Amino acid sequence: MTRILLTAGLLGASLALPASAQTSMPFALDWRFEGPAAPYFLAIDNGHFAEAGLSVEVSPGQGSLDAIPKVATGAYPVGFADFSSLVRFLDQNPEAPVTAIMVLYDKPAFAIVGRISQGVSTPADLEGRTLGAPPPDGAWAQFPIFAAAQGLDVDTITIEPVGFPTREPMLAAGEVDAVTGFSFTSYLNTTRLGIDPEDISVMLMADYGVAHYGNVIIVNTDFAEANPEAVTGFLGAVVAGLRDTVADPAAGVAAIAARNPALDSELELERLEIALRDNILTDWVMENGVGGIDPERMATSLEQIGMVYEFQLPVDADRYFTDAFLPPAEARMIE
Hints:
This protein is of the alpha/beta class. It is built from 14 helices and 12 strands.
């Protein structure tokens, strides 16, 4: 896929920056400075962005949707966001100049996290038990797809609406048998409440029939049109930062801690290692390089999104993702 939809006139001339030395490319994260953000900070500290002629400042976000309007309005040229959320946003805002250009989470972190001692080890075990789910939770939004793929009788599952602050405490207290959430977040929160890791089952929805991609790097397409070399250089630097992170995860966490002295480095190292193992360095990525997509899987994912969301416009995969700015596959391999 190489087509990119470019919408002119929505941004000021300030985005039309030359792709020259030290092009400014502020980057909007989806969430706080946590372990999985290490590649971006190592790309800064180890000079990868500078070698690409870029000046990059990373800003924290407030959720998977947060970066999308920031990039669409031109407040940031690049950002990090959930791909399924981007698809919905573009269906509702078809003229918005934003698209995905690189997949970082080949498997999204959407998961069911259960207590083995309460009988939840597999998807089928949810039948007849209580599932805690925060109504705004991204993983809960995918649950109907997961349930359909696994042939679950959802009428036999008691859904308990819970708040984000009470989700893992209720799981630890046995008030619910499982919860929906991000795999590494709910797992780590539960273990830190004193639950033995051996008593926790983590079922990534991606391993049970949900074809979605996870978080992706997005770009303002007007900026990309004016600065294609800068955008490709940005992605190449992210790959280099990811390689550095894989080689030394502790150094990646130290780079984050340098920006946040209050960081729990031990916790964030574990979070990073889980994300690398489960979400980023998948078998597909190790064979094909980081960043790209499988068109057949993309088509299946879009069909599944249509199970829980009514599209207003014809589905167009090329509108949501372009590989036009990705470095060659051989330059995106992770050893």
